[in-house]
Amino acid sequence: MRGVTAMCLAQLHGKVTGQLVACRVLQMCRRHPEQWPLFHPPRRKYVTQPASLRQRAKPKPETLESAAQEETVLQEVKAISATFPLPPKLSKDETAQGPPADIKLPPSANEERGWREIKVDVAALPGVLARLSKIRLTALVVITASAGYAMAPVPFDPTCFLLASVGTGLASCAANSINQFFEVPFDSNMNRTKSRPLVRGQISPLMATSFAAACAMPGVSLLTLAVNPLTGALGAFNIFLYTCCYTPMKRLSIANTWVGAVVGALPPVMGWTAATGSLDAGALLLGAILYSWQFPHFNALSWNLREDYSRGGYRMMSVTHPLMCRRVALRHCLALIGLSTLAPALDVTTWTFPIISLPINLYISYLGYRFYKDADRSSSRKLFFCSLWHLPMLLLLMFTCKKSVVGKKEKEAILEPS
Length: 418
Known about the structure:
Keywords: Heme biosynthesis, Membrane, Mitochondrion, Transferase, Transit peptide, Transmembrane, Transmembrane helix. It is a multi-pass membrane protein. One of its GO terms (cellular component) is mitochondrial membrane. It is an enzyme of class 2 (transferase). By secondary structure, this protein is an all-alpha fold. Among the domains are: 127-278, Orthogonal Bundle (Tetracycline Repressor, domain 2), CATH 1.10.357.140; 280-406, Four Helix Bundle (Hemerythrin (Met), subunit A) (Up-down Bundle). It is 73% helix and 0% strand. It is built from 22 helices and no strands. It has helices at 2-31, 36-39, 43-47, 64-80, 92-97, 109-113, 125-132, 135-151, 158-182, 184-187, 197-200, 205-227, 229-249, 256-276, 281-303, 306-312, 317-320, 322-345, 352-356, 358-374, 377-400, 405-415. α15 (281-303) runs antiparallel to α18 (322-345) and α20 (358-374) runs antiparallel to α21. The longest helix has 30 residues, at 2-31.
């Protein structure tokens, strides 16, 4: 009996122990499903179940990051694409009248290239034309031509003097306007000239050339027909020399300064020939004085504008040959003393003129020497401002020392054989 009882208890204990082990295994499987293949034999049975019991793959949900990227792309495409709204359909009457004012049309090809219509303000047109013709330079040209007329050894004729002054001024306006027309691309690179009318678009090139032609033809005609042919020929030659020789030479050679000095020396010669009708020694002397005066004047001016001239592509002595620029200015300052001494020898003035003009000639020569030695902005500025008052002062002293016409006529009558 004891043996049978022990066997029954052992079997009962084994069943209970097995159930406990099975319960622990089920609990572990629920907690750790990834470990099923190691210790869960019934998994094979689960895999061999019908298709309706198999696991199905769920679609991967879209992340917020991808949605944000897609939205960004859509916004970028909307920003890049430039579309213009289609205008509403118009009737025949509205089509004849043109598009409504509230409809914005796309820019035309001319606007994209930078072409635009120039609208000229009629009220501002006189000022624009004055700057186009360089009115201050033209005034200086007329003053020197008037000085040449006044120094001529003939009686003063107000009508001829007025006609010669107007014709010379018109010729100067024409030459300056053509000069600005040719130099528009280069003037736009310089601070000194970028505010000129053609550069700023205040006037069209066609109007500028028309204004130049309207000044050149009456001016040369007036000098030729109303004054004398010699003065008209000198005026036409001066326009040609300034526009066709000096202007293109500024970008080719430093010789442009000497050519420009000839241009500036011709107005007093024209004034002399307007009064006498001939090219005498006095006319050449006045031209030589103006020729020499321009070198200290312009070389001192260009010294402080070297950066501008270099940016514009102009070949000036101050840019390419700075030592020559200072040396030439000093040389012609000293030449003014010799030319003033030559005036009474040519019977243009009395011997008083070289004496009373010596102080101002010595002063400009001293400033020319300081400019040659120092080679700085201060010395060049002093020489330039001195040249501004030196020329009118010298011409005024020359006029006060002019030999009288009556004395010349008496001397000629005495020398004539009876």
